[in-house]
Amino acid sequence: MATLVSFHAHPDDECIGTGGVMRKAFEDGHRVVLVVATRGENGEVPDGFLADGELLWQRRVTETHASAEILGAHRVEFLGYVDSGMVGTPTNGAPGSFWTAPVEDAAAKLAAILREERADVLTVYDDNGVYGHPDHIQVHRVGMRAGELAGTPRVYQNTFSREHMQRGREIFGEPEVEPPDVDGEFGKPEALITTAVDVTPYLHHKRRAMRAHASQISEQSFFLAMPDENFRLAFGTEWFIRDGQGPGITETDLMAGL
Length: 258
Fold this sequence. Notes:
- This protein has helices spanning 13-27, 56-71, 103-117, 134-150, 162-172, 203-212, 222-225, 228-235, and strands at 3-8, 31-38, 75-81, 121-125, 154-159, 195-198, 237-242.
- By secondary structure, the protein is α/β, with parallel strands linked by helices.
- The protein has a single domain (3-242), classed as LmbE-like (Rossmann fold, 3-Layer(aba) Sandwich), CATH 3.40.50.
- α2 (56-71) runs antiparallel to α6 and α3 (103-117) packs across α4 (134-150).
- It starts with a strand and ends in a 16-residue tail after the last strand.
């Protein structure tokens, strides 16, 4: 049995980017650990969604544990930083925000978990945080450094294939439900991607995990409103970059040989 640690910025990120590989690792008999940098304090919910006196971060922590159970995570940890919000918002520079955290300090916290778990595999995000969110970029910086400090053998940068996204548009046209707004470029060219994991056998779990994050992913959202066939194309492959692999896609399993 090997150990996969999946590092994310906010509650709900885990099921969107790596829900398939997490569930696959679990079903293949490996240990799965989810680490989240923040509790998603600056997410948005409709009026009246939260119970009287309930704080958003409390709901999102509960949702994360529910999602993690669906995805097969054996352990969930939060690093304790505050959600930095979207690009250019005042919350980016707020005291305690993940974006303002010294990389060495945050990496030391994550590295301690990696050492404790004797992690074989770590997932982070690509250098643009997949789509430019400050906390996602910080996950890349912190995660890559933590992998170095802990000597984690395999570090994979979660991303998305731009060509795959274009193929989806050519097959299905523009989505009826608008995808979330992103800042800057989305994903990476396939020439830079080294690993494509087919997670179609685990899409039921991935979609259930998304539904567990009801405060952020509604039934009318881009993620859940699309037909099953579209969802399979959009989320049936999870994409990664691993230094030293390639050129091109040469891997199809994060845990191969472990």
